[in-house]
Recover the amino acids of this structure.
């Protein structure tokens, strides 16, 4: 039986109450001799019960201040823990961590092991919500050790539940099951209905067997039923409904039963939320119920429920839920044939996502796979799909507006994907240089291939004029052919690449060949998305010639990230560094010395080789001199996780973050960094996120352009091509893209290196002028 652990796009839920066990907030403290601080703390607890976390933050902040003034350290610690959980429920994770660190310091000053354990458990809980499984595990292990030493069984049960959530985050299903069942056993002994319900729900959500899953979820429903009306109960019902909705057994009857129970619990959660005056819970209840109606084709019902969810999200200012319901309403309206209404909804959803882009960056910074890509990426592609479909139904005079909007949405998607990869603000800094580069370079065609579910759209901009072409090849078939092409290119002893190379040429280039010829285009600038990042466009073959034999080719992660100024060829200085010796388990690059010395002979520069090529020396040289070109001839790797991408130096690995810090001052100079070259780098075959990092290296380094390779190239061939590129670059009449094209021609003319596996992986990235 197939295991289903992925999240359906139609179901949205708050992270802390599903992926992470729900927090247990402070109970009422009001008594006859209560202090003002006690009353503020009680106000916060009451606010949480109705989902008013903003109010809780205000009340608990004041309570913590008053407890500090009166010297009630234990109550102050407890209030800080509750305050951090409220921040977490609002998605304000940085503030949650800071608050918990304050609580940790106070608890350690008191040597209060009970509260130290609770703080560690809370730190683990928040770490799960931000996707940092390793950090979460470390905190939870410390918390569990303390909890067992002091025999706090309730805390132990809660920590075990969170440990199961860490295993779930890592897709370690057997370990997750064991942790959940340990938590269940303890919760039963304690007769803690709320804790038991959460453990049963998560165990049911991850159970392999459908019968076992439904049994666990049914018992979770029994445990939730007697709980007092509260925000926590409403979210428990939403989590339970999500777990039911994800269960798809081996019979239609069982699946229908699971969906029916999910709808029942969402209806109950929605009614409870409205009784409590809790729009935060209401938006998730009605929105997810609308998603289930959409799944079953009940579009009128889905639209009504989704609109209720939108109103609730707006009332509580919850954009992380709002964009999903706007997107959902767009899908429903599109299914109903209301294209204009659907476009309006999609536009609103894209706008909302853009408004919370930093939340995506901060919340999901530690998740191995791109959460933005999974959570919001399809929204942008669906918006583009709808815009392009609409463009074909209106007069040509109106179509350009929709095509222009489609291109802008693709630019937003490219920028968001790159921002998500690098996890910092380097992309936003680069956007300050936005210009219409396709107008600056009228002989270049800017090419956006857009893989969609049922077709591939080719959006072409020539001298600022947009045209689109549609090919009846869906994203899945295109990705398969791209994978075959990449593998064939790396087999340098065969001509297998011709089969897939010709197919891809027919799909991706032939539809607009006449447009290129008529316009006198000499350069194609590719803005790739997804798997298209993993292959060199220049190696496509029309049956007689490679594409590079007719056009220079450049790549950019986004036209809006490309500095429009041409290369400054006068007065430049070149920094050259590299390794010819074996270092750190990497093989020697015997031709690096020759490469660097020949480039140095062409340009004034500084050369660091082997032991001189160390991180401190690199930093020292780049800080003291005004280089316009930085050339690294050393092993470099780009991986799906940016923290594992590096340039190899004699004394270690230079990370992308460290590289950015070293060259950042160049961005503030009048003559900044024109070009960064990595002449021996590679990306994992078929890994488009690794290739995304390569495509973004110029943006990360703050350079106008980059020259790099998709895979490791023969050392001697690499040296020949790179030196020829720099020699051609001295000609002021040609662009950098044409300089690379001519260097590739040189290898094509050499019988030893005619195979595209040698010359094609070189990419000119970003500014091609």
């Amino acid at each position: 039986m197939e295991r289903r652990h992925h999240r359906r796009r139609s179901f949205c839920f708050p992270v802390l109450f599903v992926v992470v066990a729900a927090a247990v907030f402070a109970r009422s403290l009001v008594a006859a001799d209560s202090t003002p601080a006690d009353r503020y703390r009680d106000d916060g607890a009451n606010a949480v019960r109705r989902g008013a976390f903003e109010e809780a933050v205000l009340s608990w902040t004041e309570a913590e201040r008053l407890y500090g003034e009166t010297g009630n350290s234990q109550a102050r610690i407890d209030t800080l823990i509750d305050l951090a959980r409220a921040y977490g429920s609002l998605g304000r994770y940085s503030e949650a961590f800071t608050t918990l660190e304050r609580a940790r310091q106070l608890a350690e000053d008191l040597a209060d092991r009970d509260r130290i354990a609770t703080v560690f458990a809370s730190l683990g809980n928040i770490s799960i919500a931000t996707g940092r499984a390793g950090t979460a595990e470390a905190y939870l292990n410390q918390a569990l050790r303390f909890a067992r030493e002091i025999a706090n069984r309730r805390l132990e049960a809660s920590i075990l539940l969170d440990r199961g959530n860490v295993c779930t985050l890592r897709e370690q299903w057997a370990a997750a099951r064991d942790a959940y069942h340990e938590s269940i056993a303890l919760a039963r002994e304690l007769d803690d209905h709320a804790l038991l319900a959460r453990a049963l729900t998560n165990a049911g959500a991850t159970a392999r067997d459908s019968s076992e899953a439904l049994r666990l979820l049914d018992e979770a429903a029994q445990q939730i039923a007697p709980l007092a009306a509260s925000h926590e109960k409403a979210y428990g019902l939403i989590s339970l409904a999500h777990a039911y909705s994800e269960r798809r057994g081996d019979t239609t009857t069982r699946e229908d039963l699971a969906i029916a129970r999910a709808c029942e619990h969402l209806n109950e959660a929605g009614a409870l939320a409205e009784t409590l005056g809790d729009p935060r819970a209401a938006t998730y209840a009605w929105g997810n119920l609308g998603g289930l109606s959409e799944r079953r084709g009940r579009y009128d019902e889905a639209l009504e429920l989704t609109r209720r969810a939108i109103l609730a999200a707006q009332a509580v200012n919850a954009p992380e839920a709002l964009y999903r319901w706007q997107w959902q309403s767009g899908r429903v309206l599109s299914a109903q044939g209301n294209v204009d209404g659907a476009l309006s909804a999609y536009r609103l959803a894209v706008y909302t996502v853009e408004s919370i882009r930093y939340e995506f960056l901060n919340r999901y910074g530690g998740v191995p796979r791109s959460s933005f890509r999974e959570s919001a990426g399809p929204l942008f592609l669906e918006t583009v799909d709808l815009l392009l479909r609409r463009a074909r139904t209106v007069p040509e005079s109106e179509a350009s507006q929709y095509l222009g909007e489609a291109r802008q949405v693709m630019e937003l998607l490219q920028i968001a994907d790159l921002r998500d990869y690098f996890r910092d603000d380097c992309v936003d800094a680069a956007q300050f240089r936005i210009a219409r580069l396709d107008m600056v370079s009228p002989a270049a065609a800017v090419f956006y291939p857009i893989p969609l579910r049922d077709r591939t759209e080719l959006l072409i901009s020539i001298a600022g004029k947009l045209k689109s072409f549609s090919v009846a090849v869906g994203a899945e078939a295109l990705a398969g052919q791209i994978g075959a092409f990449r593998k064939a290119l790396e087999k340098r002893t065969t001509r297998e690449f011709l089969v897939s190379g010709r197919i891809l040429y027919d799909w991706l280039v032939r539809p607009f060949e006449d447009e290129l010829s008529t316009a006198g285009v000499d350069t194609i600038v590719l803005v790739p998305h997804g798997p298209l990042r993993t292959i060199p466009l220049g190696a496509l073959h029309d049956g007689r010639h490679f594409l590079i034999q007719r056009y220079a080719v450049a790549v950019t992660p986004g036209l809006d990230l490309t500095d429009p100024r041409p290369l400054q060829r006068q007065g430049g200085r070149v920094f050259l560094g590299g390794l010819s010796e074996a270092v750190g388990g990497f093989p020697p690059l015997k031709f690096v010395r020759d490469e660097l010395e020949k480039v140095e002979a062409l340009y004034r520069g500084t050369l660091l080789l082997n032991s001189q090529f160390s991180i401190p020396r690199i930093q020292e040289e780049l800080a003291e001199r005004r280089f316009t070109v930085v050339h690294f001839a050393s092993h470099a790797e780009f991986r799906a996780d940016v923290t594992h991408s590096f340039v190899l130096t004699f004394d270690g690995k230079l990370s992308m973050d460290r590289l950015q810090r070293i060259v950042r001052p160049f961005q503030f100079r009048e003559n900044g960094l024109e070009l960064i070259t990595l002449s021996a780098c590679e990306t994992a075959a078929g890994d488009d996120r690794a290739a995304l990092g390569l495509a973004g290296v110029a943006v990360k380094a703050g350079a106008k352009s980059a020259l790099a390779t998709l895979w490791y190239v023969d050392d001697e061939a690499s040296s020949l091509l790179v030196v020829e590129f720099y020699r051609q670059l001295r000609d002021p009449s040609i662009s950098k893209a044409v300089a690379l094209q001519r260097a590739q021609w040189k290898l094509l003319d050499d019988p030893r290196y005619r195979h595209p596996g040698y010359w094609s992986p070189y990419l000119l990235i970003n500014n091609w002028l």
